[in-house]
Amino acid sequence: MQGLEKKIKDRASELLQSGAVDGIIGWEKGQFEYDPTPAVFTKETGLDNLCYNNFCGANLSKYLVGKITSDKKFAVLLKPCDTYSMNQLITEHRVNRSNIYIIGIGCNGHLNVEKIKAQGISGITAVSASDDHVNISTIYGDSKLAKKEILLGKCEVCRGNVHVIFDELIGEELQTPKPDDRFEMVAKLEAMTAEERFKFWQGELSRCIRCNACRNACPACTCRVCVFDNGRSGIEAKANASEFEEQMFHIIRAFHVAARCTDCGECSRVCPENIPLHLLNRKYVKDINEFYGDYQAGDIAEQRNPLVNFGDDDIEPTTVSDKGGQK
Amino acid sequence: MQEVKEFKPNIVAFCCNWCSYAGADLAGSSRLSYPAEVKIIRVPCSGRVNPMFILKAFEKGADGVIICGCHPGDCHYNTGNFYARRRMALLYSMLDFMGIEKGRTRVEWVSAAEGAKFANVMNKFTSDIIELGECVKLGDIRCKD
Question: Domain with B47 in it: what CATH number?
């Protein structure tokens, strides 16, 4: 990881110096090892703060949406899973491809600091990861954890280390952990009774504070004015939202990205209340795969997604609701 | 003894201007009765129905929402009902996934010539909703003390 960071910095410096790009979108060192934040680097001197470590889980493709009207050229650091989102943004004309220079970087899974802290570890000073273990140095001493237990949710079901779109690749092909079945939890919920499912979602969604982080971080959610911010929609209220609105927000948020969601897991990663929001998106992914054939958003640029397409013999909604899960 | 009040459901029917809306008209002029609880909202096409409309209807107190459109292949705009079919299949599946009773939402294809079918569909749907009772779950998912 250290070597990779050095390579990225060198290349970023080259690109800025030669004037090939006007800015680099990457991660900036935080106060601690575990809180790097996305940042735009426009000066070579600032590059000292660029970092790439075990906690750079954020998907940077969304940061280019705001740059569509800019005539400046930006380089962006993307991990393999982030490139799916980039492809999707290109398909939807939400970014200007000719002004983007995509640097694909290797990834071997990112860590969730909340999961580390949940193990009772505090005062973290340094973290180094090998293929299956993570060594954590703290001010109270060192400890070693199994990597599988502290991975980000999205890395647990990693799709592999193939960049589907890039201009150049930096770094060795790192080994990603073996993926689990990503629909396991969805299938588990489907097997429950309606009452149990309702209780599950009631428990999860009642923690929602409507901070809108899930919406803001989502690389598929790119409307200029969101329906939930639109005064004329009648549902823009935030603080004084009714109970019903919370529910509606989550169904609609997931629905608006259905068939465009690349299952990157940003929604759950940024949720301050740890609500498993990705399960709603993943349910749509699973349904689409079942009803209309396997589909991966962002796999190929410029492909037509299942919701803007149709077949003569599609499943009837009534059949879906008659069949459904258990009563 | 207190009188037990009969449950009168609120039912919203989104009807396509080119088929089901005329179908409802035909049902009326043929003197076929369908429940007065059904409130018809005319839309230009079943493809116009935004998933938000359905949730919004539930928020405002609907107990059941039904969408009626032209038979697949007969859409006035050629393809609107095909898109509606895919969208609604996903939405209904999601409502079920969240534990909401699945009988509360329905899509039926009713042409302008099918007045009798319109009346039958509405009678059946209303009796199903009466069986399910009032819709409380959608408003209830967020815990209250």
Answer: 3.40.50
